[in-house]
Amino acid sequence: MVKICCIGAGYVGGPTMAVIALKCPSIEVIVVDISAARIAAWNSDQLPIYEPGLDEVVKQCRGKNLFFSTDVDKYIREADIIFVSVNTPTKTRGLGAGKAADLTYWESAARMIADVSQSDKIVVEKSTVPVKTAEAIEKILTHNSKGINYQILSNPEFLAEGTAIKDLFNPDRVLIGGRETPEGQKAIQALKNVYANWVPEERIITTNLWSAELSKLAANAFLAQRISSVNAISALCEATGANVAEVAYSVGKDSRIGPKFLNASVGFGGSCFQKDILNLVYICDCNGLPEAANYWKQVIKINDYQKSRFVNRVVACMFNTVSGKKIAILGFAFKKDTGDTRETPAIDVCKGLLGDKAKISIYDPQVTEDQIQRDLAMNKFDWDHPIHLQPMSPTAVKEVTVTWDAYEATKGAHGVCILTEWDEFKTLDYAKIYANMQKPAFIFDGRNVVDPEKLRQIGFIVYSIGKPLDPWLADMPAVA
Ligand code: NAD
Ligand code: UDX
Q1: Counting Cβ atoms within 10 Å, is residue 480 exposed (0-12), middle (13-18) or buried (19+)?
Q2: Closest Cα to residue 330, out of 388, 413, 215, 233?
Q3: Which GO cellular component term is one of those annotated (predicted)?
Q4: pLDDT (tens digit, 9 = 90+) per residue, 46-87?
Q5: Is residue 34 lining ligand 1, measured as CB closer than 6 Å?
Q6: Atom of ligand 1 lying closest to residue 12 CA
Q7: Are residues 47 and 189 in the same domain?
Q8: Is there a catalytic annotation at residue 272?
Q9: What separation in Å is there between the alpha carbon of 137 and the centre of ligand 1?
Q10: What is the mean pLDDT of the chain?
Q11: Domain stop point among 170, 199, 228
């Protein structure tokens, strides 16, 4: 029986390994993590992450060929293939702070492998890493090798949160990069054999190591670039009376462009896009390519612009001040169908409104009060470090309340900001919400989930990203 060990039981390690276990009954899969709390949750009925379909997959295999453990050394030692799926956050201090990837967790995982291994291993980079990381890992392993043969593969993960199980069951492609030596090719084949249990062969791409590492950064940069492009157009739509939904539809009908990832929004969030682009920018700079670096940097700048443009719009519409006013926030997760708040645009929007002294009341169906308070108290980039390295008990922001009910959150509010596209926000009783709000009652839809015309009929003043402005808003000074 082939044994797989995955270091890192997070959003990627957990679901990916659960699906491998489900699709490959003859493989034993053990997921290990230094966080005892996370492992305990994986072994309980309350999994540590919310992901549609994940519970069923875990229930089918856990205890059969899928195990979760904190005994990192033991399972590394026993494994034939070791996936490393630890976090690779943006550095918060020192050389490259705010840009470069922090490989502390990756390096410590590699050193653990070197310390405890007693037999040959295939080590698979599952985390997103800077191009050329495999070379560094190879050095750490071979300089401590005790005669053991290590083959490093790059197998970046392309799943998106909220659709992780669907994406893993039916991936557009699986990418495996390895050395072009006979041993490297043999290792590629071994990993290919795992995926071949359910992924059609033509969708398994094999490349050299550096192409695989760089493809992951490039794919995320391309995806984020589409969102920044449509968001830049959304600002122009508001200024001219064009409708961004119509523009995106017309543009996306060109088969060379395609319809996906053209939804204008308050800005992209999530643990990957910003971090990976910053990393790409840093690598370009380090390779003496400032023009390429500046090109990609602009994707982040437009994203930051979109978030501050949204806050400015809210404040400007409400007579240039939100001081002391209750503003309801519907949705805090970075997208629907996840409880993940890493880099969610809601953090920046809330901080912006708090900066203007608003009182904020937040409702999200999947995010706890503790998480929200932690996010609002944390410094930029601290979020992606293990919980034990984060501030233990941040002081709660007292102007922020969190409820489990959208109607409670909006009661008595002057304005409502929709920041996550949860389906339930489409079917709320907006007449009831309107009746319980201060007047004039404003809705700022950062995800284009509500029908502005219907809400205007109720009496709301509505702002929808990139849509023709409400006559009320059109009279307001331009927002930059
Ligand atoms: P995560 O923070 O959810 O999980 C990482 C886990 O690794 C944590 O539980 C942490 O405790 C553990 N860990 C850190 N160092 C360890 C060590 N030395 N030994 C054992 N465990 C250790 O992160 P994630 O979202 O799963 O992302 C992991 C990697 O995958 C990152 O590089 C990320 O960029 C990449 N990625 C993420 C996504 C996504 O949607 N989240 C998608 C594709 C790729
Ligand atoms: C992303 C990549 O899609 C995935 O392939 C990679 O493995 C990890 O990073 P994820 O961050 O989980 O996945 O979600 P994604 O669906 O890409 O959304 C990222 C952000 O962009 C979200 O905040 C989302 O709301 C936003 N978005 C997405 C838009 O604003 N408009 C769109 O058209 C699409």
Answers
A1: exposed
A2: 413
A3: nucleus
A4: 999 999 999 999 999 999 999 999 999 999 999 999 999 999
A5: yes
A6: 26
A7: yes
A8: yes
A9: 17
A10: 94
A11: 199
